[in-house]
Amino acid sequence: MEDFGVVPDVKSEIKLGLGIFLKDVGCFGVVGGIALALSNLFPPTQAPQQTLFFIVGGILAVYLDLRPRTNPGKRNFEVIWMLIINRQPKLFKSFGYYEFKTIDSVRKGDHNFGN
């Protein structure tokens, strides 16, 4: 019989071992793939610049994978992604009475709030 572990919750991360998570591998893979694809833009005479580009790409991958002190539940690439798409999942929208009454009735002073 195989022993299957039970995850504590739905949002738990997949751990590959030794403190390495699947999101870590994905982050390094995406940044490394983009750096590798963009490295073809360098001509052969610019080998030192290409090497520097790979080093900066590696530093960027490490930075994006770190967890910020202000929000330890997310990684930097997740925080940046949330800022880009401006996702606010628990946003409360308050409707004012201007949306349910005409402007003329509000100007007249008719403050009958649905009664």
Look at the helices and sheets and give the structural class: mainly alpha
User: How much helical structure, as a percent, in the residues?
Assistant: 40-55%
Strand order of the largest sheet: 1-2
Instruction: Give the low-confidence spans.
Output: none
User: Could you give a short account of the major beta sheet?
Assistant: 2 strands, antiparallel
* Strand residue content: under 5%
Can you tag this structure with a few keywords?
4% strand, mainly alpha, 115 residues, 2 strands, two-stranded antiparallel sheet
Describe this structure in words.
The chain has helices spanning 22-38, 47-65, 76-85, 103-107; strands at residues 15-17, 20-21. It has 115 residues and is mostly helical. It has a domain at 18-87. It has a two-stranded antiparallel sheet. β1 (15-17) and β2 form a beta hairpin. α1 packs antiparallel against α2 (47-65). It is flat and about 75 Å long.
Provide a quick synopsis of the model.
With 115 residues, this protein is mainly alpha-helical. Helices cover 44% and strands 4% of the residues.
Topology diagram in text:
Elements: E1 15-17, E2 20-21, H1 22-38, H2 47-65, H3 76-85, H4 103-107
Antiparallel strand pairs: 1-2
